[in-house]
Amino acid sequence: MREFIIVGGGPIGLYMAGVLESHGRDYLLLEANRSGGQIHLYPEKLVTDVPAFGSLKAKEILRKLLKDIDSARIIEGCTVNSIRKNTVETSLGTYGAKTIIITTGRGHYEPRKLGLEGEEKASNILYALLRPEELRGKKVLIFGGGDSALDWAKELSDISEVHLIHRRREFRGNPKTIEGARVNLHLPYIPYELEVKGSLVKAVIIENVETKEHLSLPCDVVLVNFGAVPKIETFGLPSREDHLGFSVDDHFKVEEGIYACGDCVQVEGYAKRMAPGFKEADAILQEVLSA
Length: 291
Ligand SMILES: Cc1cc2nc3c(=O)[nH]c(=O)nc-3n(C[C@H](O)[C@H](O)[C@H](O)COP(=O)(O)OP(=O)(O)OC[C@H]3O[C@@H](n4cnc5c(N)ncnc54)[C@H](O)[C@@H]3O)c2cc1C
What we know:
By secondary structure, the protein is α/β, with parallel strands linked by helices. It folds into 2 domains: 4-110 and 229-289, FAD/NAD(P)-binding domain, CATH 3.50.50; 113-226, FAD/NAD(P)-binding domain (3-Layer(bba) Sandwich), CATH 3.50.50.60. Helices cover 16% and strands 33% of the residues. It has helices spanning 11-22, 58-67, 147-156, 274-289, and strands spanning 4-7, 27-31, 46-50, 54-57, 74-76, 80-84, 87-90, 93-96, 99-102, 108-111, 125-126, 139-143, 161-165, 183-186, 189-197, 200-208, 214-218, 221-224, 228-231, 253-255, 258-260. The strands form 6 sheets. It has a 6-stranded mixed sheet with strand order 5-2-1-9-21-20, covered by helices on one side. A 5-stranded parallel sheet has the order 11-18-12-13-14, with helices on one face. It has a 3-stranded antiparallel sheet with strand order 6-7-8, with no helix packed on it. A hairpin with a 2-residue loop joins β6 (80-84) and β7. α1 runs parallel beside α2 (58-67) and α1 packs parallel to α4 (274-289). The longest helix has 16 residues, at 274-289. Bound molecules: flavin-adenine dinucleotide (FAD). Flavin-adenine dinucleotide binds at residues 7-13, 30-33, 37-39, 41-42, 45, 47, 49-50, 79-80, 103-108, 148, 233, 262-263, 272-275, 277.
């Protein structure tokens, strides 16, 4: 029987895989989508709070995590549906291992949409800023008021005409991010209607929340950052009453032979970021590698 199965290929699962690889251990990583987890939501962000990486863009952290892993040990597009001792049932079949380590983070992440007619077939509405260079010279509408929306606005302000639309007068994210940047603000506005031609949104009509006045903003691209709809799946294993992920002991053990760490485990007082997740992974690795 295989030694380890890691369920979930976000940064914590990939880190775990890298350590097992460096110890020459027999493992398999199962990932529902593509490896990287939440990093795909902020690839261009400069991450400065993971001491092991110094100051790096999120996508570079992902590249580093993937570098030392044998790609044959990662199975992408493999959704895990149930976990029992030594057995993992997936969309691609059943896998067995002595130890199962769950790093499913926030689960399947679905971006929240604008909720307007025509959105589904529009090819120029994006929910993540993957290739900023492709938006050079374009008229870009950004919806949202969190840190990511502000990061995108700042990042694109040098190369695109940026309009930032938010439903409140205050941002949830840090407004200093866009201080001095060439960003047209529309506050407090919400998206009202899409003007669609073929598969392209040509303009978005926005509505002032206070006056109900409408404004049509022509655009080449629409970026939406309304957050995520997370679904933490706990596979029938012991989970917290507040639905914040798995219930674990001090060693991050869910049950005999099953561990969990990272964002799928909320530990009182821990901000769920990568650094605490890596630390939890180390604690598990220390235990399972010395067993
Ligand atoms: C916009 C944003 C900015 C952030 N900025 C920072 C930052 O600057 N610094 C920092 O440290 N942290 C940051 N974070 C938080 C950080 O990304 C998370 O703490 C980290 O991604 C958690 O890693 P994880 O591996 O536990 O989970 P995730 O990244 O959520 O990965 C979980 C993986 O498991 C997979 N999965 C889920 N369910 C299944 C299933 N049933 N079967 C198979 N696979 C499954 C998912 O597809 C996913 O790939 C940020 C998060 C966001 C959203």
